[in-house]
Amino acid sequence: MKNETHDITHLLVKHDIRPTKIRRAIAGLLFDGHDKHVSVDDVIDLARRQKIRTSVASVYNTLNQFASAGLLRRVTVEQGRAFFDTNLSAHHHFYFEDEERLEDIPTEDINVSGLPELPQGRTIKSVDVTIRI
Asked: How does pLDDT run across 20-68, given as a tens digit for each residue?
C-alpha cells in the first residue's frame, strides 16, 4: 500500500497536480492499471464504497483537473453528461444509452473518410467517434 501511495503521489506531482488527500484517493480509485470510463457519480459511488469522504464538487473539480493535466480523457455523450476515460490511447466508443455506459472501440475498427477541408493553418488534433446504441 505504501508503494502504491508513493506511485500515485509521484504521478500527480509529475503532472503538476498538488497531491492532496482527496486527489490521491481519487487517483488511487482510477489509476489501478485497468481501463475504465467513469462519471462523477461513479467516482462518488466508488469513493463511498472505499469509505472515502468527499463532495460532488471535489470529485468534479478533481476529474476535470486530471483531464486538463492529460491523465484522463473527457468524453461528452450529451449536454451535461460526460465520462472520464483512463485509456488515453486513440480509440472510439459505443455509448449504450439505456445503460448509460461507454465501451471502447479500437481505432482500427473504424475508417473515417470524407473529412472537410480544414481552415488555413489548422490541423486535426483528433477524430473521436461515439456510436450511440
From this structure: 999 999 999 999 999 999 999 999 999 999 999 999 999 999 999 999 9
Measured CA to CA, the distance from residue 54 to residue 22 in angstroms comes to 7
Joined grid coordinates for residue 41? 457519480
* CA 74/CA 93 separation, integer angstroms: 12
Q: What whole-number distance in Å separates Cα of residue 80 and Cα of residue 57?
A: 15
Residue ranges of domains in the chain, CATH in brackets: 2-132 (1.10.10.10)
- pTM equals 0.87
